Amino acid sequence: MVNRNTLRLLLIALVMVWVVACTGVGPTTGLFRSASPHDQYGQSLKAANLDKTALGADWLAAGERALRDSLKITVPYRESGYFSAEKAFAVGYRMDAQRGDRFLVRVETQGQKDVQVFIDVLALESRQRTSPVAASKADTNVLAWEPRRTQSYLIRIQPELLRSGRYTISITREPALSFPVQGRDSRQISSFFGVPRDGGRRRHEGVDIFAPRGTPAVASVNGTISGVASTSLGGNVAFLTDNDRNIRLYYAHLDSWNVKNGQRVSIGDTIGFVGNTGNARTTGPHLHFGIYGFSEGATDPLPFIRLGRGPAKQSLLAPERLGDSVRIATVKTAVRPAPTADAPMLRELPKASPLTIVGGTAAWLRVELPDGVTGYVSSAATESVNRPLRKLTLPKASDLLDAANPSAATIDTLPTGLAVEVLGGTDRFLLVRRTNGQTGWLSTRDTPAPGNQTRR
C-alpha cells in the first residue's frame, strides 16, 4: 500500500515525465504523440504503477464515469464547482453543435496552488461510444474548437491529482468565419439557404446579404482565390479556398473584383464589391454568399457567419456554498440531467432528502446524492441543513459512517442514549450531527421511528 507522502513523491516524478512528453523534448519524445494531454497523464499514471493506488485508480475511473454520466447544457453556459485533493474529480457536459460553430471553453480556477485542468471534447457517436475531437494544450485551461459535423458532443473537465480549488467553466459560441460584407452582420441576411428558386426547379444554395452598391465584399477566412469568372447565373463571381476546413467560399453578383486567381488573401481583405450582376439584374445590390465542401457540395453558410450568442449570463453560485449539504424543502422535487425545468427526471426525491452541492448556478444546483448520482435540482426547492429536523436519542450503540453506504468507513461509535440532531435522511440512512458539530450517517436500522422523537 502506498501512503500519501510516497504518492506525492511519485506524482512529482510523474509530472516531470509528463511535461517532457507534452513538450516533445527528451528521450520520451513521440511516446504519446497521438494522445491528448489527459490521455498522456493517464498513461503516465499507469507507467508509474499509480493506477494501482486508490487515488490513481479513482482518477482514471472518474474520467470514464464523466463520459457516461454527462449533464446536458445549452450554450452559452457557465457554472462553478469545487474539486478536492482528497477525491478524484471529473465532470462531463453534453451539448449539441453545428458545423460552422466555433466554441470557446474556458476553465478558471482558484486555489492555493496552480492546477492543470484537462479539457477534452469528444463526439458522441452513440450512447456507448465516443471519439476524441479536440483537447486543450498541457499549459492552458482554454480550448477553442470548431465541430466538423452537426451532432452531439461531450466536454470533459478533469483536474490533475492532489489539487483542491474552485472552478468556473464558461462555454460560448461564435461564428467560425468572419462576416463577408463589410459593416454588415447576419441581421442583414434576407434570403436563406434552401428556399425555392425558379418555381421550385432548384434550391437557393447560399444566403443573400443586401448592401449598397460598391460595399466591399471581404474575405471570411485566410485562403487562396481559386476562381474568378463571369457567369450568366452568378454574374461576376469569385471562389476563395479554405484548406483548413476543406471548403470553398462563393462570392456572386459582384459589381467588380479586387482579386485575381491564385492570390493569397487574409481575413478582411476585399474580394470585390457588392452589385447585382448575373441573374440579379432585377433585384437590389447584394452579395450571394455560398459554401461548398470539397466532396459534399453546397452547405448552409448561416451557421458559419451568424452572430454569436454573447457571453454566458447565468448567475454563479456563491463560492461559500460549494461543498455544502442541503436538503429538499418541498414535498418532492426532481433531479434532472440538465439545468432546466423541462429536462427529463432522473429521480424524484421526497422532502428532507440530503444532497451535497458540487457545482451549478444560483438558480440550478449541481448536486450529488448519497448514492453518488449527480444531477441538477432547482435551488428554490432546497434549504440549508443547519436547522435540524428533530432530535434523536440513540436506543443502542451505533456506528457513525462517513457515507450513506453499509460498507462505508466508521467515523466513530456513538454510545447508547446519545442525543443527536437529524439533518436529513433517506429510507436507509439518516444524516445526523452531534453536539460537538461532528456529522455523519446512521443506519435507520439502529434508530427509532420519527414519531417517537422530539421535533423542532
Question: How would you describe what is shown here?
Answer:
This protein has 456 residues and is mainly beta. It has 4 domains: 4-175, Jelly Rolls (Sandwich); 186-305, Glucose Permease (Domain IIA) (Distorted Sandwich); 319-382, Roll (SH3 type barrels), CATH 2.30.30.40; 390-452, SH3 type barrels. 11% of the residues lie in helices and 41% in strands. It has helices at 4-23, 37-47, 54-68, 302-305; strands at residues 71-72, 77-83, 91-97, 101-110, 117-124, 130-135, 142-145, 151-159, 165-175, 189-191, 196-197, 202-203, 207-210, 216-218, 223-231, 235-242, 247-257, 264-265, 270-274, 286-293, 297-299, 325-328, 332-335, 347-350, 354-360, 364-368, 374-378, 382-384, 390-393, 398-401, 410-414, 419-425, 429-433, 439-443. Strands 10, 13, 14, 15, 16, 17, 18, 19, 20 and 21 form a 10-stranded antiparallel beta sheet that branches. Strand 20 and strand 21 (297-299) form a beta hairpin. Helix 1 packs across helix 2. The longest helix is centred in the first third of the chain and has 20 residues, at 4-23. The protein is elongated and about 95 Å long. 38% of the residues are buried. The model is unreliable at 19-33 and 452-456 (pLDDT under 50).
Provide a quick synopsis of the model:
The protein is mostly beta strands and 456 residues long. It has helices spanning 4-23, 37-47, 54-68, 302-305, and strands spanning 71-72, 77-83, 91-97, 101-110, 117-124, 130-135, 142-145, 151-159, 165-175, 189-191, 196-197, 202-203, 207-210, 216-218, 223-231, 235-242, 247-257, 264-265, 270-274, 286-293, 297-299, 325-328, 332-335, 347-350, 354-360, 364-368, 374-378, 382-384, 390-393, 398-401, 410-414, 419-425, 429-433, 439-443. The protein contains 4 helices and 34 strands.
